[in-house]
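Comment thread on ticket #2218

A.B. wrote:
> Attaching the input chain for the structure job we discussed in standup.
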Amino acid sequence: MIELEGVPELIDPVMVAAFEGWNDAGDAASTAVAHLEREWKGEVFAALDAEDYYDFQVNRPTVFMDNGVRKITWPTTRLSVVRVGGDKPRDLVLVRGIEPSMRWRSFCNELLGFAHELGVELVVVLGALLGDTPHTRPVPISGTTSDPDLARRMGLEETKYEGPTGIVGVLQEACTHAGVPAVSLWAAVPHYVSQPPNPKATLALLNRLEDLIDVRIPLGELPEDARAWQVGVDQLAAEDSEVAEYVQTLEEARDTAELPEASGEAIAREFERYLRRRDGGGTAGGHATDGEGSPYRRDSSGGDRNRPPKPPKPGTDDGDASED
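C.D. wrote:
> Ran it. Output below, let me know if you need it in another format.
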């Protein structure tokens, strides 16, 4: 029996989860949940026992000083809750951690135990994968589910993926077997600039999540950081003619493939998002968004941390395995 002392009765709760590791290219998914925690001042109410799920030689604990006392932070997965105000208030249960090293089925069952006790109505798992997508175009976001009815109602794809999977795929399947509606949102990150952070991909995930659960998400400085990230990558790519040519090839392929995608539905969705933000002002849930403490701060050291590598040779495997 899971004890949830101090957690109030939740309103139409949705669980939003992301895990660092294989399913988190550019740290885009885990950073999205961290953004929600910070903007809505999430309160951690539970943490999974690290010794049950993590190999500490893979994910090592860290030592820090607290008022002269040495303490250790263990790698784990934590749950927090936030209440979103507005005309239609609802609560979010945020799950943020590291992909476990072992006992994945027990890990998922423990998270589902929390979902059951809290009355969670929908689980949304965020992920990011490497892909042949240019950094100059909108980030592709795919929404998938194993539930055909949910796919029809929410305008999602019914997943047909076969192959290696990560904790995102395992958790979604566990939700399906437990009868809990579950959705995965995937951002495609350019494989040639995969280093974190990627605020543009994080922003795209949050925009899609906003549409999915009908909640306006305060973005703070994230749009500005996304623009600055793209300008920085533009400058780095322009310094190498081979990379610039490769990016142009990706742009042409993307533009050709997406000509039919300028649909009325896509235009209407963007217009609705614009109206929500115009009418709602610059805050949500009663909290100001001053952007301080943002993890998307640009590196002013002048280093080459985000310098894109040479494009892959034809016929080589240029990215991680990914799932739909």
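A.B. wrote:
> Thanks. Noting for the ticket: The first strand starts at residue 14 and ends at 20.
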